């Protein structure tokens, strides 16, 4: 079952990728004497100068610990930090900034929901529903709480093209299902899943649901109120922001009902040796000193991405994807893994007689950075009977000329390894 590409039915302005490239200092360098062609955005995007400057300015001009100080630096840091909560709420169209929790990334966000929302509701024999294309971060946390509680992990399969069937999802929801967690976009296949329709299935059964937006939020418009999901998660470093920062969106009534996952400073209202009274969300889930400069960098990244127009970014990356797919069809022995009708800008592929690591090494000699491996999605590799794939993933700053460079280098791989 496919879902319509969010920009396929609307007119969007074209991105000027060559101008955008000037915003990213690292894209001006060479690798092995060749211009850098960075196509590993699915793992981590590069940072524009405005993000680098925002984080640096925090440390140069006003850094101090937040929420606790009466002095000017603490007040300025607190204001800058908390302003990002509103920016993240705006990016996702959350109903309130109180629904935004800062974490270390998508992985921690999922673990927080698993331990604080899902684990307390589970009894032996209960079920958690995920899909077969999930990232390890949306598999392992659920396995852990299943081990703790005696619950069972139920996996929805996907087709050879890399698509989910809504009928398959519906057929695996039972009276024992307690929670659903699904990635919106596959990091290994590029598939754009029918997230809204899956949420509607959850609603019909009275279930809560999490959407993993790590590969969606940096590449397309996201509206959590329209999706009606209960939780949504993404990482800053894929959205042109710093590492070590992430966002958990949760409907406020759910967050308010959840116990804290970690205890410590700044997540309390009062503490005695007899009893601790916890703060209201989101502070309840932000124990300890956060990555202050990183969150401020995330705010600059959100501003930058919003100024590009997420719909225009998706249209641009989709154009690069289709352009690359057409040229890859002419390379003998190359097979694309994941051919869903609706895809984001991710191309996973294998080549006859050339291991993905060899492909990556040869491309690196031409200055082209791709990912080679299992992409933290080993069950996906097992589904296709391959140990790994090579993966090129696009961002707003990539160009058709860079796709041409990729294709030329892949022809070199074929000439070297092809029969």
What brief labels describe this structure?
single chain; 419 residues; alpha/beta; Aspartate Aminotransferase, domain 1; Aspartate Aminotransferase, domain 2; disordered N terminus
Characterization of the model:
α2 runs antiparallel to α10 and α11 runs parallel beside α14. The protein folds into 2 domains: 140 residues, Aspartate Aminotransferase, domain 1, CATH 3.90.1150; 257 residues, Type I PLP-dependent aspartate aminotransferase-like (Major domain) (Aspartate Aminotransferase, domain 2), CATH 3.40.640. With 419 residues, the chain is α/β, with parallel strands linked by helices. The two termini are 37 Å apart. It contains 14 helices and 17 strands. The longest helix is centred in the first third of the chain and has 21 residues.
Task: Give the topology.
Elements: H1 17-21, E1 30-31, E2 34-35, E3 37-38, H2 49-62, H3 72-92, E4 100-103, H4 106-118, E5 127-131, H5 140-149, E6 152-156, H6 166-171, E7 177-183, H7 195-204, E8 208-212, H8 224-227, E9 231-235, E10 246-250, H9 252-257, E11 268-271, E12 276-278, H10 292-308, H11 310-328, E13 334-337, E14 346-351, H12 356-365, E15 368-369, E16 371-373, H13 378-384, E17 389-393, H14 400-417
Helix pairs in contact: 2-10, 3-10, 11-14, 12-14
């Amino acid at each position: 079952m496919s879902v319509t590409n969010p920009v396929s039915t609307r007119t969007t302005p074209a991105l000027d990728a060559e101008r955008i490239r000037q915003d990213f200092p690292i894209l001006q360098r060479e690798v092995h004497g060749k211009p850098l062609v960075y196509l590993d955005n699915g793992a981590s995007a590069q940072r524009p100068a405005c993000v680098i400057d925002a984080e640096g300015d925090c440390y140069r001009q006003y850094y101090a610990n937040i929420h606790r100080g009466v002095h000017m630096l603490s007040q300025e840091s607190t204001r800058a930090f908390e302003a990002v909560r509103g920016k993240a709420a705006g990016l996702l169209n959350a109903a309130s900034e109180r629904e935004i929790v800062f974490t270390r990334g998508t992985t921690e966000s999922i673990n927080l929901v698993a331990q604080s929302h899902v684990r307390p509701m589970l009894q032996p024999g209960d079920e958690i529903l995920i899909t077969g294309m999930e990232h390890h971060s949306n598999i392992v946390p659920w396995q852990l709480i299943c081990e703790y509680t005696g619950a069972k992990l139920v996996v929805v399969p996907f087709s050879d093209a890399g698509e989910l069937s809504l009928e398959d999802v519906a057929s695996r929801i039972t009276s024992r299902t307690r929670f659903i967690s699904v990635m919106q976009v596959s990091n290994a296949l590029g598939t754009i899943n029918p997230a809204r329709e899956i949420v509607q299935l959850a609603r019909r059964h009275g279930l809560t649901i999490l959407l993993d937006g790590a590969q969606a939020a940096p590449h397309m418009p996201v509206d959590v109120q329209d999706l009606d999901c209960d939780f949504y998660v993404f990482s800053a470093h894929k959205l042109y922001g710093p590492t070590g920062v992430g966002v958990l969106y949760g409907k406020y009534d759910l967050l308010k009902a959840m116990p804290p996952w970690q205890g410590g400073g700044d997540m309390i209202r009062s503490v005695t040796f007899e009893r601790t009274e916890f703060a209201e969300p989101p502070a309840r889930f932000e124990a300890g000193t956060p990555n202050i400069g990183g969150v401020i960098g995330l705010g600059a990244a959100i501003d930058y991405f919003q100024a590009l127009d997420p719909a225009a970014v998706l249209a641009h990356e989709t154009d690069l994807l289709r352009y690359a797919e057409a040229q890859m069809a002419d390379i003998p022995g190359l097979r694309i893994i994941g051919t869903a009708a609706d895809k984001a800008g991710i191309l996973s592929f294998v080549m006859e007689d050339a291991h993905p690591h060899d492909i990556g090494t040869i491309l690196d000699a031409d200055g082209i950075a791709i990912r080679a491996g299992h992409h933290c999605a080993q069950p996906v590799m097992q589904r296709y009977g391959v140990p790994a794939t090579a993966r090129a993933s696009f961002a707003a700053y990539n160009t058709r000329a860079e796709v041409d460079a990729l294709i030329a280098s892949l022809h070199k791989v074929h000439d070297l390894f092809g029969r």
